[in-house]
From TrEMBL:
One of its GO terms (molecular function) is DNA binding. Residues 32-69 form the HTH cro/C1-type domain. This is HTH cro/C1-type domain-containing protein. SUPFAM superfamilies: lambda repressor-like DNA-binding domains.
Amino acid sequence: MKTKKADLGVAQRFKEFRKEFVANNMIEAEPLLNLAKSQISRIERGEEPITVATIKLLVINYDLNRDWLLDNQGNKQKKDLSKKTGLATMNEMGDRIDTLSNEISILKQNLKKAWEIIERHDSEIDKLQEKF
């Protein structure tokens, strides 16, 4: 019994996405997609339909836009990092600056304590050297 051939457009888009975002060759893609090389090949030739599980894996791990894969609508990935707004980027930078400022403050405090310990040890060493 012959099975229905998969949508060739979906097959082509799957291959395009796999090469661009997962792995350029099928051997490297096998463990990442939880598919055998032969399955990947059959999907890409349109001989086997792509499973819901594989689509879900691509959505979760590689941010695949389902609409693009199935209907050729929108961008390949849901998040288009090249179209980030300046405000979002500025907010992220501000948050990162705040985090780094806090880390620097903690490092300064730790450095000050370390120098105090070193000075105490130097003083103890000087006292011991005077005794001998």
